[in-house]
Amino acid sequence: MKSHPGKYSYKQKAFTLLEVLVAFAVLTMGLATIIKVAGSQALQLAYLKDKTIALWVANNKVNEIQLADWPGTGTSSGHEFMADEEWRWKLKVSNTADKDLRRLEVEVNRVNEKGEPVVRFIAFTGKRTKKNTAP
Predict the structure, then answer these.
(1) What is the number of structural domains in the chain?
(2) How many Å apart are CA 78 and CA 73, to the nearest integer?
(3) CA–CA distance, 21 with 102 (Å, rounded to integer)
(4) CA distance 79 to 17
(5) Spatial separation of the C-alpha atoms in residues 77 and 48, rounded to whole Å
(6) Cα 29 to Cα 22: distance, rounded to the nearest angstrom
(7) Would 12 be classed as within a structural domain?
(8) What is the pLDDT of residues 82-95, one digit of tens each?
(9) What are phi and psi of 21, to 5 degrees?
């Protein structure tokens, strides 16, 4: 088809301003969602890291008690360094219905934090029996 002088022959070779603005709006919403999800994941990662390290501290304390002599009932507390951070632990040893079994409850938190512990770990330890050694 030939174009006639005085008549406009319009072929679109680029996007209109409206199309570009809509594309930027969609792109912006998508990027905002990705940034929000990434931030949430970073917070979850930090939470899980703290929880894991605090669980190691509690587990170490329980293992120390289980390897030592029969523990007396009561509470004790202390500090421990783990993963370049200082953690505060609180141990409560209590009796159970079985006289040869003690309940160990360890709460672990960061040294400078108040409130709910990062980890509350409950374990049990039994009284050791003397084994007969064979000659």
Answers:
(1) 1
(2) 16
(3) 69
(4) 63
(5) 24
(6) 11
(7) no
(8) 999 999 999 999 99
(9) -65, -40
Residue where the block lists tokens 């199309």: 19
Residue 10 identity (one-letter amino acid): Y
Contact 89, 107 (CB under 8 A): yes
pLDDT at residue number 119: 94
Query: Is the pLDDT at 12 greater than 70, yes or no?
Result: no
**Do residues 109 and 117 make contact, with C-beta atoms less than 8 angstroms apart?**
yes
Question: For residue 109, which of 30, 55, 65 has the smallest C-alpha distance?
Answer: 55
Partners of residue 76 on adjacent β-strands: 91
CATH number at residue 33: 3.30.1300.30
| Secondary structure E strands in the chain | 74-82, 85-95, 101-110, 119-126
Query: Within a domain: residue 9?
Result: no
Q: Note whether 106 and 58 are within 8 A (CB).
A: yes
Edge-to-edge strands of the sheet including 119-126?
74-82, 85-95, 101-110, 119-126
**What are the phi and psi torsion angles at 118 (to 5°)?**
-65, -40
Rounded CA separation 127/69 (Å): 8
- For residue 39, give the 3-state DSSP assignment: helix
Q: Write down the pTM of the prediction.
A: 0.69
